[in-house]
Design brief:
Blueprint: H1 3-14, E1 21-26, H2 33-44, E2 60-64, H3 72-84, E3 94-99, H4 106-116, E4 123-129, H5 137-141, E5 144-148, H6 159-167, H7 171-177, H8 180-195, H9 200-210, H10 216-236, H11 258-272, H12 279-294
Parallel strand pairs: 1-4, 1-5, 2-3, 3-4
Protein name: DNA polymerase III subunit delta
Pfam family, one: DNA_pol3_delta2
InterPro entries: P-loop_NTPase
């Protein structure tokens, strides 16, 4: 559990020292909804269990930048609705929630900055981000930052289920990635990664056939972990996750450019999530670069 987050909120309430602007910071693929729900429940003594039950009209206001860029009018309308609202019951605080603030347009962020300089006393602004490096320093300086770490998952007998729990704690994504189809894909991927020791072409054909926009993060994250494990094993003989047994890694090449492969994968993941990228083209370029590392 993120004890630090829960303790900070609890202490702030007990000491009556709530900040007016919070920024919840997490890595990609961490679902922030449960922390938003917890925040609302603790601040206003609510009993919400899922976000769908929250009526985002009054006293809760939401701007969701998770999937779409946040526009200036989104921020202006949210500020207007939250500040002009008079429906405060039972001493509840009004809470303006802006998810994935890193996806705000320049004009929307400028409008938000002006507002954050003088937030009304009866309003709390809760910002979230999955990429703190993309959040304006001026916004961060006006916020009380709380880091949200990925929570440890219960270990499963299935190594692929354990892998999925390493890359996300979003329950919806876990369910999606744990489908029979995706688990079968990971199993095949593992086989082809081993086969690539002698026949890398089969791995390249598999990647071209199997990688889609929906599973690119899943497949590439597994490959990244696989190469990282080999790099660690060849560097110091220690495996951090036991995805590759120590008695197996010696059959791989010690002089393979594992760190280069990891960088190629990371770059592809980044490009594949960009709305401006041609996915098929980027996939082809990724596979060509990976094939060049194998030298066959």
């Amino acid at each position: 559990m993120n004890n630090s987050y829960y303790q900070i909120i609890e202490n702030s309430i007990q000491k009556n020292k709530l900040s007016q602007v919070y920024l919840l910071i997490s890595s990609p693929h961490i679902n922030m909804d449960k922390y938003i729900i917890h925040f609302i429940n603790k601040i206003n003594n609510e009993q919400f269990d899922i976000k769908k039950k929250i009526n985002f009209i009054d006293p809760y206001f939401l701007v969701d930048g998770k999937k779409d860029s946040i526009k200036k009018e989104d921020i202006i309308n949210a500020i207007k609705n939250s500040t002009e609202s008079t429906m405060i019951k039972n001493n509840k605080s009004k809470i303006l929630i802006i998810k994935n603030i890193e996806n705000g347009s320049p004009s929307s962020l400028n409008a938000l900055l002006k507002f954050l300089e003088n937030v009304p006393n009866n309003l709390i602004v809760l910002l979230t981000t999955n990429n703190k490096n993309k959040v304006l320093k001026t916004i961060r300086s006006r916020s009380f930052e709380i880091n949200i770490n990925r929570e440890k998952q219960t270990l499963s007998k299935d190594k692929f289920i354990n892998f999925i729990s390493l890359i996300t704690d979003d329950n919806e994504l876990i369910d999606k990635y744990s489908s029979k189809e995706n688990l079968a894909t990971l199993n095949e991927l593992s086989d082809y990664l081993y086969l690539a020791r002698t026949n890398p072409l089969e791995l390249m054909l598999f990647l071209y056939k199997s990688i889609t926009i929906d599973n690119v993060y899943l497949i590439c994250s597994y490959m990244q972990l696989f190469y990282a494990e080999l790099y660690c094993l060849f560097s110091n003989g220690i495996s951090s996750t036991n995805f590759i047994k120590t008695n197996e890694y010696l059959s791989f090449k010690s002089d393979f450019k594992y760190t280069k492969a990891i960088k190629i994968i990371k770059d592809f993941i980044k490009l594949s999530t960009s709305s401006n990228a041609n996915f098929k083209l980027q996939k082809s370029k990724f596979i060509i670069k990976l094939k060049e590392l194998y030298g066959k």
